TrEMBL record:
This protein's name: ABC transporter permease
Biased composition range(s): Basic and acidic residues: 1-17
Any GO CC annotation of this UniProt entry: membrane
Keywords, ordered alphabetically: Membrane, Transmembrane, Transmembrane helix
One Pfam family named in its UniProt record: EcsB
Annotated source species: Tumebacillus flagellatus
């Protein structure tokens, strides 16, 4: 019994953290219990205050993510949902969908025509090396960062490691798929000149080169002083590696690897900044989004597409000489907007060059006619967005003008642009000499008639529909 009685106070002394002794008995035990409770309460209170303080310091918008890698995953899911919704809106527009299908069919015909007419002396290996080399060095890490992150995520930068790792893995996977798709597009050329085995070897090399170039572009952003010609050197290195593998000329491949290792050494030996250049990363992310939205704007209106305005003084000097027609008050405004906004002028040039290159190699008159008209329609499809009031300041909205004035302005602008495109594409087909002259004679006439239809029937009706839904 005495042993048991002696053990009890010792236990209380132990629990009381040395606050009493074996002789203090029950009083000491009560005192120890009180102190223990008080200490535990203070620790609990301090822990709660610390927890509350840490939560308060966590930037708004990420407090629900213990691991910021989960934040990246959530943003990827949201971006994919938005992309799927945008794709579904494209599918709902039957006219544009059929035009896109016709354009793809025309591209296939044009590709086959090009392959059939390639001379034996054509440097196919170098051509493939240039295309795949460019595809390998092109691209950047998709961070899905947003402008508010400068305020809300920048304070948590030391926790962003998991976020960036997931960003790199996501980007490496999808951009490797893109590189392999480029190789797949070139498979008919491989079959004709190098063989399927070379295509498989090239696909594996493209995967490896894409991962390496993606790592390099990310690490290069951390340098204090950057190697200005790194992109050109990487492109040459990629092309040499691909060419050496296709032709089994290993010296070329080794030279390409040496170039890539040299620029990698420059990156590793350079002085790096302590923090990621957030403004640059945000600009790159915005450029990537703009590229996707620009492609989507061929088919549907994309309100999220930010307008990039350029001065283009060489064009504006000519535009200023255009006399202002009082009967078409909006025409001058739309002309200036068209040439200064990269969204419209750039699409006009790229689409015309793209369709023109295909038409240059097409010898079937019906395929040429379909491509010709599809190119005109896709360009005309963009123009109602130009007249939208959302693109102009509030001052434009108080002009004492009607919607009929807007329709006339956009119709006359569309007519001039589409007729100019019709004439240029017809001249290109004439230069190619692949179509009989009797067929080329009525091609510009068909373009003018179709331009009149698009400008004065299709565009006004679509303009009214979009204004009602706005």
């Amino acid at each position: 019994m005495s042993g048991a009685e002696e053990k009890k106070p010792r236990t209380q002394v132990k629990d009381g953290d040395g606050a009493g002794s074996a002789r203090s008995g029950k009083k000491a035990g009560d005192t120890d219990a009180t102190r223990t409770g008080s200490t535990a309460g203070n620790q609990s209170s301090a822990s709660s205050e610390k927890s509350a303080l840490s939560v308060a310091r966590v930037p708004y918008g990420i407090s629900g993510f213990a691991d910021l890698g989960d934040l990246y995953t959530a943003r990827v899911k949201r971006a994919w949902v938005q992309g799927i919704l945008l794709f579904l809106s494209i599918l709902r527009n039957q006219g544009v969908l059929m035009s896109a299908i016709a354009l793809v069919i025309g591209i296939a015909f044009g590709y086959k025509a090009v392959l059939d007419r390639l001379p034996a002396s054509f440097p196919a290996a170098w051509f493939i090396a240039v295309i795949v080399g460019f595809a390998a060095c092109r691209g950047r890490v998709r961070t899905f960062l947003q402008e508010p992150d400068l305020v809300f995520l920048l304070p948590a930068e030391e926790r962003m490691g998991a976020y960036y790792r997931r960003a790199w893995r996501y980007s490496a996977f999808f951009q490797s798929v893109q590189a392999v798709v480029w190789v797949g597009v070139l498979v008919p050329l491989f079959q004709a000149r190098a063989g399927i085995g070379a295509a498989l070897l090239c696909a594996v090399a493209a995967l490896l080169l894409k991962g390496w170039n993606l790592w390099f572009s990310w690490m290069e952003m951390l340098l204090v002083r950057r190697f200005g010609a790194s992109l050109a050197v990487r492109f040459v290195g990629n092309a040499l590696v691909i060419y050496g593998l296709i032709t089994l000329a290993l010296w070329y491949a080794l030279a390409g690897v040496a170039l890539l290792l040299a620029v990698a050494w420059l990156v590793r030996s350079g002085r790096q900044v302590r923090s990621l250049p957030w403004n640059e990363v945000l600009d790159l992310e915005q450029q990537t989004l703009s590229a996707y939205y620009t492609v989507a704007s061929f088919f549907v209106e994309v309100p999220k597409l930010k307008n990039r305005v350029k001065r283009r003084e060489w064009i504006m000097a000519l535009v200023r000489r255009i006399p202002i027609n009082q009967k078409l008050p909006y025409l001058y405004l739309y002309i200036r907007t068209f040439f200064r906004y990269s969204e419209y002028f750039g699409i006009y040039l790229r689409l015309m060059v793209f369709v023109g290159v295909i038409l240059y190699f097409v010898s079937n008159v019906w395929v040429a006619l379909v491509l010709f008209l599809v190119g005109l329609f896709l360009m005309g499809f963009q123009l109602p967005n130009l007249a939208s009031e959302r693109r102009y300041s509030e001052l434009v909205r108080i002009y004492p003008l009607t919607d009929q004035d807007k329709k006339r302005g956009i119709s006359w602008l569309a007519l001039q642009l589409l007729i100019a495109e019709s004439i240029l594409l017809s001249l290109l087909m004439l230069i190619s000499g692949r179509l009989p002259l009797q067929h080329l004679a009525w091609m510009p006439l068909a373009g003018v008639v179709f331009s009149l239809y698009v400008a004065f029937y299709y565009l006004p009706n679509r303009f009214l529909e979009e204004e009602k839904s706005a």
